[in-house]
Amino acid sequence: LLSKDKDKSAASKDRTPEGAAKRQVDGADTPKQQLLDIIGGMKVEVSYRKKLQRLKASENKKQAMNKLEGPDSEGSVPQGITQDTQRGKPLNPELVKAASAVASSLPRNKKQTESELLAQLRRHEETTDKQKKGRTINIRNVISEMTIKRQSPAQRGTRVSGRISLQLHEDGQRLRREGSSAQSMDSRRSLKVGKRLNIFTKASTEPEHALKTASSPTIWDLEFAKEVAAVTAQPPRNGFEEMIQWTKEGILWEYPIDNEVGMEDDAEFHEHIFLEKHLEGFPKEGPIRHFMELVICGLSKNPYLSVKQKVEHIEWFQKYFEEKKELLQEI
Amino acid sequence: MAAAALCWALRAARQVLPSPCPRQVRSYYVDWRMLRDVKRRKIAYKHADERLRINAIRKNSILPKELQEAADKEIAALPRDSCPVRIRNRCVLTSRPRGVKRRWRLSRIVFRHFADHAQMSGVQRAMW
To answer: Which Pfam family, an example, fits this chain (chain B) (predicted)?
Structure first.
């Protein structure tokens, strides 16, 4: 990690921005001289947080210096300090002063550079906060689980040859071995071992904002949708698009042809054939029962009706005979 | 009353388009006879189940005759256009009542016209 490296390198260097501030007031030579004084006169701080901040700040300055190298600057003191501190989190005032000093030492637009530097500082502050809260990914955790793959020089040689040469028997053998070696490597490290890296966030399956404002789209919405579809519908450019349009409209069937399109009979065969349980409303004996048993026999052999339709058929007869009861009593 | 009947007929004569399609669409039937045929088909479809069931009671040797006579009266009470016998398979394009081939629903003249212009899929002039 860069910060860790910086730590090691900066252990020797000591830094305090307070000293820098003093120097700024006292020195007042060229701003560049001031900056050098700042960096030279810094001391080690005990708290890690401020150290990290200053590390980031110094890193920024160095980067800025390296990027914008040019002729000497004109000495004009930038004034945008108060503006920047008002935005969001207030930055460390020492850092701000340091940033202004850096900006003044650089050739281009002073205010712009200063604002950029301060923006970078703010971003770094955010990253430090995130790291503290443990939200960002620590690359150490990722790398810790990995091992370096060691290649024997013989294998390396064969791999190269395998790429270039034809599929000879020897190469085939070697390739097979390589494949097996790769597999063995993977099998050594199983998938569920190791600390959990929070790289991927679980896709939150929130219940779709259940009710939209209207439970069903209003007529106006439908009309609008129709209008949009009509406007955006381009005439088909070729035969394929024409066929697609016909399929959507229902003129053309979908291929491969499904013989049971539109027919969704989820009933089992026994529901089609054994229909006696629907005959409970009828008298047990007599011509009507005889008649209904014939009806049921016919329905059980009918493959074209759904179970619902058959049940409706029987119920219609039941209703009919109920109505004709008085007539039947006379007989 | 004549105006109302005319309005109703005009509305019936128009085809209802579910979605706006950019192609040309015929919005009238060929003639009034075709319209009447369409009406008969719709009403026959509506009463088809009922007619089937009442006929099942009528054409029966098991049920008592009184019941069958009652069923006779019921079926006679249904609208006259509900019987499928009144439907005539007219030509779809010209409404010709005779000389219509069932497979294509076209009269012989229209069929010949299209077949000669190679607009009937799989139809060829016979030669043997």
So the answer is: Ribosomal_S14
pLDDT tens-digit profile of A303-322? 888 899 999 999 999 999 98
Residue-range domains of chain B with CATH: 30-88 (1.10.287.1480), 92-122 (no CATH)
A290 touches chain B (CB under 8 A): yes
A120 within 8 A of A60, measured Cβ to Cβ: yes
For residue B117, which phi and psi values (nearest 5 degrees)?
-90, 10
What is residue A214's three-state secondary structure? coil
Q: Are strands B106-107 and B100-101 parallel, antiparallel or unpaired?
A: antiparallel
Residue A34, H or E segment: helix A31-40
| Domain limits for position A294 | 269-329
* pTM across the whole model: 0.46
The answer to whether A41 touches A19, Cβ cutoff 8 Å, is yes
Q: Is residue A307 part of a domain?
A: yes
User: What ipTM score was computed for the predicted complex, to two decimals?
Assistant: 0.75
Mutate which: A223, A292, A302, A327, vs B, most B CBs within 10 A: A327
**Cβ separation B63–A317 shorter than 8 A:** no
Residue of A nearest to B19 (CA): A226
Determine, for residues A226 and B20 on separate chains, whether the beta-carbon distance falls below 8 Å: yes
CB contact under 8 A, A327 and B70: yes
Partner-chain contact B62 A291, CB within 8 Å: yes
Query: CB contact, 8 Å: A231 with chain B?
Result: no
A314 touches chain B (CB under 8 A): no
